[in-house]
Design a protein that fits this description.
Layout: E1 3-4, H1 7-10, E2 16-21, H2 40-59, E3 65-70, H3 75-82, E4 87-90, H4 95-109, E5 114-119, H5 127-139, E6 142-146, E7 152-157, H6 175-185, E8 190-192, H7 202-214, H8 220-228, H9 230-241
Helix pairs in contact: 2-8, 7-9
Length: about 240
């Protein structure tokens, strides 16, 4: 695979690798389900804030190697955003399923022992959830972090499980069920972290705004974006309450 890396990434001795699933913050290509509700530049800036805060969360973990998996066309731009010590790797194929498959092909083949693929839109996740995911991999073949909408915000393994992410359902309310069904077929021992939520639709954004208003340090760049766009987000909240 094509990749970019800072020299510090190769000197890391941790057996824990956190791979952030990301895209370059290009207008109209990120957080598309928010586009009808907010101006396109605002949505693009929002995604950039989410990615920045996700990287901050990853760095707070301590002895964990950090990498980013992204489409090949985004490698140079993403590498310019993430800074030193973070390896950026181009996925093979298109879509989220291909990206997740690429994570374990790339890092398990290279001898990494506990690998977690984490989304780039849950920077407000408690760091303890990520630590517990790595711990779950000590005794499990697979670890999954469920979302409340039927998907998952992270998935981890210690080796490649061919076909684990194949099939329909990625990005839908059946994604978790389909993943667990394939894991059962493969007779994998599955561990879980606590359920959480990522930011896909307006309701998620409104929920995040309320949480960051009380605790902006959880995702400071995203909280600053929320303050800038507070009138627009407040209007969205009024709209959801009217439904």
């Amino acid at each position: 695979m094509e990749s970019w890396s800072h020299s510090a990434a190769h000197s890391h001795n941790s057996d824990r690798t956190l791979v952030i699933m990301a895209k370059a913050p290009k207008p109209g290509q990120v957080k598309t389900r928010l586009n009808p509700s907010l101006p396109l530049p605002a949505v693009t800036a929002f995604y950039r804030c989410l990615l920045d805060d996700t990287l901050q969360l990853a760095r707070s973990l301590g002895d964990v190697e950090i990498a980013v998996m992204c489409p090949g066309s985004d490698v140079d731009e993403v590498a310019g955003l993430v800074g030193g010590g973070v390896r950026v790797v181009a996925q093979t194929g298109e879509g989220l399923a291909a990206a997740l498959t690429s994570v374990f092909q790339e890092f398990a083949t290279a001898g990494h022992r506990r690998i977690i693929a984490f989304n780039s839109d849950s920077p407000h996740l408690p760091a303890s959830f990520l630590h517990s995911a790595f711990e779950a991999l000590v005794a499990s073949d697979l670890v999954v972090g469920p979302t409340f909408d039927g998907g998952y915000y992270l998935v981890g393994a210690k080796t490649i499980h061919p076909g684990l992410f194949e099939g329909d359902g990625m990005g839908t309310g059946s994604a978790l069920d389909l993943l667990l069904a394939r894991a059962r077929t493969m007779e994998l021992a599955v561990g879980f972290t606590d359920p959480f939520y990522d930011i896909d639709v307006v309701d998620d954004l409104v929920r995040l705004a309320a949480e960051l208003k009380l605790a902006p340090a959880r995702a400071p760049r995203t909280a600053a974006w929320m303050k800038q766009w507070e009138p627009a987000v407040a209007q969205l909240q009024t709209g959801t309450e009217d439904l």
